[in-house]
Write a structure and sequence with these properties.
about 200 residues; single chain; Tetracycline Repressor, domain 2; 2 domains
Amino acid sequence: MPQTDTPAPAAPMGRRERKKAATRQAIADAALCLFLERGYDDVGIREIADAADVSTTTLFKHFPVKEALVFDEDADQEARLLAAVRERPEGQSIPAALREHALRHRMAATGTDARFAEFFDLINKTPALRDYAQVIWLRNADSLAQVIAEESGLPPHDPACSALAHFALEAPRAARGHDDPRQAVVRAFALLEGGWEALTSER
């Protein structure tokens, strides 16, 4: 997946780790190239393995299911999401920080960069990828709820933190199909902002 933000510098890897990372990247690049050229459903696992010059066994060691080939930066996405809350400007609310993060992601999907346009078009046209993208995105709910609790001084398992995390991750999906996706995201987060402000003002 094309990156929407610059990732933090990674710790130096050993030779074995570099080789594994290079193999994984080669597989992901080959898969995305074939998917964009012919469509997700018309490309087989064997073709991807051949294009990356690896065995299907090696491919599945790196990507357990076909859908995962398209989403090869899940850990980076979670790190950027949590950083949006932890590193938000002073005075900015948590819902506002999450809204801005969602809008950056949305702008990448609708921007002028052809890489992003093609990538998101592939996902939007492929039901299996849309569903998988939402599943892996919602996996971040627990870690996001924990960071929200830490940043707001609420108990770790406060249901309000879990609810905000869940609905913040679901909010961008509300923009799907709207004539003005950006405004749809803004309106969804306005509802979350109002509820969060009312709750935290009671403390």
